[in-house]
Design a protein that fits this description.
transmembrane helix; 2 domains; Glyco_trans_14; disordered C terminus; transferase; 9 helices; alpha/beta; glycoprotein; transmembrane; binds 2-acetamido-2-deoxy-beta-D-glucopyranose
Length: 202
């Protein structure tokens, strides 16, 4: 009899922590289920009808043309300050945020300075390097603005040479020149610490 009593009392005593554990388990499972989309991102509903976008008289196309955001063409700049006022192109970042993941972007450009600048701003990071090789078809103003952009930004290189990139040889020369400039210019004090570390890490 006494044994039975002790058994019942123990059961009751144990049921409280067991209940708490069960509630915690259910809550955790519910939370994990609820936040599942964080770990497995859901694909966006992508129902753009490409046919509509190629039809220049379709309503979708006309609405897009009417409502799209246009780049505002900027005037030729007189100095670096004007570029920096227009664009957020930081030259440095806090040490705690800077990883050793330098990336090199090489592009051949020939026109649409504002678009080049916009894309550069979107992809910009102080630890990345950008080299813009100019095609021979670039006009004088584009050339001048690209050279200025290269002079203003430490991590933007613009070789003072034009390439006929309509031929494979010309395209190759442009890329090779960019690689050479990156190689020569990245030995400067500006990025030396990050490169040393990269070498040490393997
Ligand atoms: C283009 O869109 C217009 C308006 O919606 C439509 O009348 C026309 O048939 C479409 N043309 C083609 C080639 O789909
Ligand atoms: C585009 O603009 C028109 C008229 O201003 C508006 O009725 C329509 O909803 C807009 N479309 C989108 C996708 O914003
Ligand atoms: C670029 O090279 C092509 C092929 O050799 C040639 O036809 C063209 O005239 C060249 N363009 C310029 C601007 O020199
Ligand atoms: C920005 C910069 O330092 N550019 C230099 C890159 O390397 C070439 C070739 O050594 C120099 O002529 C540039 O001045």
């Amino acid at each position: 009899m006494a044994n039975h009593d002790i058994c019942t009392k123990t059961m009751w005593a144990l049921s409280v922590p067991l209940c708490i554990l069960l509630i915690l388990f259910v809550a955790l499972t519910a939370y994990a289920t609820y936040s599942f989309h964080i770990f497995v991102p859901l694909a966006p509903a992508n129902n753009i009808d490409c046919e509509q976008m190629f039809n220049t008289t379709s309503e979708t196309y006309l609405s897009y043309i009417e409502n799209r955001t246009l780049l505002e063409p900027s005037q030729d700049d007189r100095n670096c300050f004007q570029i920096r006022r227009r664009r957020y192109l930081p030259a440095d970042m806090p040490k705690s945020m800077a990883g050793n993941h330098n990336m090199f972007f090489i592009r051949v450009v020939s026109k649409d300075y504002d678009f080049v600048e916009e894309v550069l701003t979107m992809m910009h990071s102080p630890i990345h390097f950008f080299c813009f090789a100019l095609d021979i078809t670039a006009d004088a103003l584009f050339k001048e603005r690209m050279f200025r952009l290269g002079d203003c930004q430490v991590n933007v290189l613009v070789p003072r040479q034009l390439f006929n990139t309509s031929t494979a040889h010309g395209m190759f020369s442009a890329h090779r020149k960019c690689l050479k400039e990156i190689d020569e210019n990245t030995t400067s004090l500006f990025i030396a610490p990050s490169f040393c570390q990269e070498g040490r890490d393997g």
